[in-house]
Amino acid sequence: MSEKKKIVINIEEKENVDGVNIKKSSRSQSLEKHQHKVSDHIDDFYNKKEFNSIDRPQSKGLGWGGVLIIAIIFGLIAGFISTIFILQRQEIELPFGIKIDTREFSSNQGQKVIEEKNITITSEDYLINLRTELQGKIVRIFPAKIVSSDTSLSFLEQIYAPWQTLGLGVILSSDGWLMTTVNLKEGENYIALSGNNKILSIEQVISDPISNVNFLKIADQDLPFITLAKAKEALPGTTVVIFDKFRNLYSVKISNPTAITVHKTEDLVRSADNFSDYLHLDKETSILSFPNGLLFNPEGSLLGLVSNDKVISAWHLPNCLNYISEKGKMIRLHLGIDYIEVNEASGILNPYFKDLTYGVIVYGAPLSGSPADEAGLKNADVIIKVDGLILGSEQNLTYLVQEKFPGDQINLTVLRQGKEIEFNIILEEKEEKEI
Predict the structure, then answer these.
(1) Is there a single domain that holds both residue 213 and residue 254?
(2) What are the start-end ranges of the E strands in 91-230?
(3) CB 247: neighbour CB atoms within 10 A?
(4) Dihedrals φ, ψ of 318, to 5°?
(5) How many domains does one find in the chain?
(6) Domain membership of residue 294 as a residue range
(7) Pure H helices in 278-370
(8) Residue 23 falls within a domain, yes or no?
(9) What is the CATH classification number for the domain harbouring 260?
(10) Do 373 and 415 share a structural domain?
(11) In which band, very low, low, confident or very high, does the pLDDT at 74 lie, cut at 50, 70 and 90?
(12) CA distance 383 to 375
């Protein structure tokens, strides 16, 4: 058997292995020469200095990633510029008649715009200005700190601390009449603390048992005083301001300025002698969070006072101070009838009522001996006018009665079974036992 010989093939060099000569093939040699030529050509191209930069290939480019980054940067810049442009305009007009009110998208905290007396101001500025304007017209009510020979108070105990505040009050007149819904107990002593922390001694308290409002007399004179707003100044949806008992301010909205609480049909019955409607705020606002607080409109007029779970409307009270000044006590006018408003009495089948669109229906017989009873009003009479004013959404019977004085005459136009009758009635003061 012949001996096997190991053969190593290396195409890079010519070798003699155990006497066997291996040579590169002509094809391999040709390929090698071609590769060397290509390599020399590339080196020569990149080492040239005399060619245009446009013709020169780039060793590295932006690629799609670089293009995307540049597009994002330019997009952010354009968005920033557009935002500034939009925020500087209150309204933007788009094609096809589309309009966008940019104020609707403003933040409620600090960016909310309020139009007041043709001046546009931010909500913070508005609240600060209103607080400053009303500071001298609002007081805080405290239990009086009594110091006698039998008692002594330390330095800190003598201070009227904010947490001891019972509630707020307002100055009604320059001669020292105040008004508050704070429950003042008979036999207890109280003081009012002014906006500049002056202690005001309360000399007299007169209570209105119908509205639960207390009128307080102090000795000070020449005081700044608030004005009472009217019902027509409190439109649904209006933004107003409420002060809590610590004089913090909150923006709220009116839902209904003359609402009544109805849990059963009998709650629709109103009295000409007593107010039964109250000012309601938006459903997001809990009145219980503002005990004995105050509600103001943007012009600084008093809209109402918080009492328990109700806002007593300011337009219930315009004659109260006049009564007190003239009579030295709180009085109410007495007509002596209950009634249901026609616009709240849908579904009545009686032909005398079903076609009515305004007025009030006398509910039950007038109170015996009352001015209405003496004048001859009857159950189911329909009062359509008071002093020539049509009773409806803008004219309320109770308001028209209570804005008069004892001894004043009131003219009622009444429909009785389709026939129109005129009544001239002299109003009386309501007895305290009736109140």
Answers:
(1) no
(2) 91-94, 98-101, 113-116, 119-122, 138-143, 167-171, 177-180, 190-193, 199-208, 213-218
(3) 17
(4) -60, -30
(5) 4
(6) 231-327
(7) 320-327
(8) no
(9) 2.40.10
(10) yes
(11) confident
(12) 14
